[in-house]
Amino acid sequence: MDIHGYQQYKAQSISTMTSGELLMLLYDELIKRLTRAELALQKQDFDLFEASIQRSIDILQYLDDTLDPQYPISHDLHRLYDFFLYELGRVHIGRNAKVLAEVKPRLTELRDTFREAQKAGGV
Which of 55, 36, 28 has its CA nearest to residue 118? Predict the structure, then answer.
């Protein structure tokens, strides 16, 4: 398999996405990483758990960093992202499956809300 060709294709695909599509890609990756963290914790694969939670934190931090403060919704999203970052910090430090099980559905719901907004033409 030509890795260089795949990387070019991937970069081109990302560069042609709309902002809404990129947002969905990030949220889908976030949910995937949280699912991976859940499974890794169940299997006691702590290296995979740590990597998955850290990547989830990185994605949330990126989403927070890219908020545009000129829009009123950005303030509310910032508060939500802060909450989720705090909770994932608790998950990370304590390997807390209970908190992870509470946070993942909330983030999934937020992703689904953005998906509906994108379908309606709002994102």
Answer: 28
Residue-wise pLDDT for 30-74, tens only, equals 999 999 999 999 999 999 999 999 999 999 999 999 999 999 999
Average pLDDT over residues 75-79: 95
Number of H helices, E strands in the chain: 5, 0
Whole-angstrom distance, CA of residue 43 vs CA of residue 74: 37
- The whole-number pLDDT of residue 97 equals 94
Distance CA 118, CA 108 (A): 15
Neighbours of 85 (CB within 10 A): 16
| H or E element at residue 110 | helix 97-119
Write out the two tokens for 6.
């795949």
Q: How far apart are CA 81 and CA 63, in angstroms?
A: 8
